[in-house]
Design brief:
By secondary structure, the protein is mainly alpha-helical. The chain has a domain of 148 residues: Orthogonal Bundle (Helix Hairpins), CATH 1.10.287. The chain has 5 helices and no strands.
Amino acid sequence: MGLMSRISRSLRALFGGIVESTENPELILQQTIRDMRDRVPELNNSVAQVMATEKLLAKSKERLENQVVDLDSKIRASVKLSRDDIATAYIGQLQQAQIDLQKTSQQLEHATLASKQALKARDNYVLQMQRRTAEAMQLINQSKQARLQEQLAQTMESFQIGDDASTFDEMRDKIDRRAAAAEAKLQLGSASVDNQMQDIEREALDMQLQDKLLAYKQDMGLLPASTGSSPQALPARGETSVNEESGEVINHVNRSN
């Protein structure tokens, strides 16, 4: 293979690849449909011309037939009037009219056949155009679907689910840590106040119990009477002091005796 042939093949392959890569099947099919529809008026004009030729030949045949009948009548009239010279002239015209009528009849037969074939060809073309249009529309829809699938495939290829999943996990952990820290701080703050109040209430209750226990022991003579002026714990709401209870017990015993 010569150098020029190889260069020519390379150029054709290069430009052919460029053209193929720039071709849009949808646009090409749509243009093809428009071209086929644009040919219909041209085809109709051609069929109309053929049909017009048929009609002209039909009128010519009719005119020649009338001319033949008219000449035949004139010949008969001339012969009847013994005008052989005029009859001979009419006979010459009749022969020429008959020749023209025969040719016109043959031409009319061909024109009629051509008109029928033209109409049939036009109808077949319209039917083929409709079928091609429906097929092209189906191909266009398939092309659109294929383009959408390609776009979806490219999107899926560029979509790294692992990276996004790790990002979601990282953000979830960060939010969970912040929520846990805030909850712990809230719980710690409320717990410190509650614990202090509970400790104070528990200490006050222990002091009341100890005071009551000492009062019982003093009343029973187990401990010497207190000489100091230390204040006694106030009784809780709804309770009476130990001394009052002890006094009531002693008064009840004396009344019994």
